[in-house]
User: Fold these one by one.
Assistant:
Number 1:
Amino acid sequence: MPAMDERMDSRIARLALARFRVGGFVGTSIADLAGALGVSKAAIYYHYRSKDALLHHLIVDDENESARLGPAEAECEARRSWEAEGGSLDEEQEP
């Protein structure tokens, strides 16, 4: 895959993860992702054949990254990723 495609693949995955966290899997559409990225739905489907395939990619990559890093490093990386998307694990959560 050319470098540009790899970057787009990564952009799609990062955006999807953030949107799935906020709006949920069902509440996030391919059209939402495409609009946020300024690309067509076809561009998303070029990289992922379906929204389910995109979710599978996110889950498998997370598992692979955790296995590569080890539990403590994976937790730190997950926290950095979450905070980079605007989340905070230190804030009090409302019931």
Number 2:
Amino acid sequence: MVVGAPVLLVGVVVGLLIGLVQALTQIQDQTVSFRAQAVMMGLVLVICLPWLIQRMMSYSQDLIMNIPARCWADSHAPHAHLAGRNAWNSCFGCTRTSSWCLCWY
């Protein structure tokens, strides 16, 4: 949501401003608003692209680094179907208090 906010906010503001100008001048051309919005949103995307890429890379790295913590067998000890398995099981949804688990070996 934060990543898309700059582009969406510019689109809303430009659309409102163009709509106000069109209402005041009684210009009814629909493409004027679309072109202005597309140009401004593209410009903001180019300006914000380094920040957007950095945010997405940081999120992806955090997500990937936390995968082992979710699949570690010690956190699944209460589940009887994991007894005697090795430390790396591919399980999702298993916690100490959960009643469901999706695993494959």
